[in-house]
Specification:
heterodimer, A: about 120 residues, four-stranded antiparallel β-sheet, 11 strands, about 0% helix, about 50% strand, B: about 110 residues, mainly beta, globular
Chain lengths: ~120, ~110
Amino acid sequence: GAGVSQSPSNKVTEKGKDVELRCDPISGHTALYWYRQSLGQGLEFLIYFQGNSAPDKSGLPSDRFSAERTGGSVSTLTIQRTQQEDSAVYLCASSQGTSGSRGNIQYFGAGTRLSVL
Amino acid sequence: RKEVEQDPGPFNVPEGATVAFNCTYSNSASQSFFWYRQDCRKEPKLLMSVYSSGNEDGRFTAQLNRASQYISLLIRDSKLSDSATYLCVSPPGNTGKLIFGQGTTLQVKP
């Protein structure tokens, strides 16, 4: 596709419910990243995928958070038993690779704005 | 100490002014850096990459000082449209993930 696509763009859920956020990376990009941005805060790294494997999950805040990627393309971030502190914008990015060269320039989707009531 | 630190500002400058932001990083192994721009309620977009001592693109100049471990972004002849938050970004080695600074907010006034 032309850019990174995320859905839904907005999600309102009740505390305790599970949510799934989807990311479609730029076609041909092997690396995919999830970040979280709370109101007025910087971006917080959650997890990244190289192909279908996740070499670094260090940013996932708790075991309620999980992510998977299939076919080296679409990724889903799942939050179980949502809490109010999970409210944030969840941003997905993709890059051609992960090396320190120009290959790791990351391009972002517009994000999913999650509100947990 | 945070891995990437920025002065959050806000920097309020008149149109036409020159403004500079600094960003310090703690990981001396970092080889490349980026400046991203983020408009209100939008996703970050790449502004400039810095792979060696610096980079220049029109009114924007980025410089890297490895000895002092800081990166700067200089904006000349500020425009109203430059108003945004500027994020300093470092990939720590070749791990893939990006470490973002908290961002510096710029407001250009008429």
